[in-house]
Amino acid sequence: MKDLYQVIRNVRLTEKASLLGEMNNEYVLECEPKANKLEIKQAVEKLFGKTVLDVRTANYSGKAKRQRRADAGRTAHWKKAIVRLKEGDTLDLI
Question: Does domain 4-63+75-85 bear CATH number 3.30.70.330?
Answer without folding.
Answer: yes
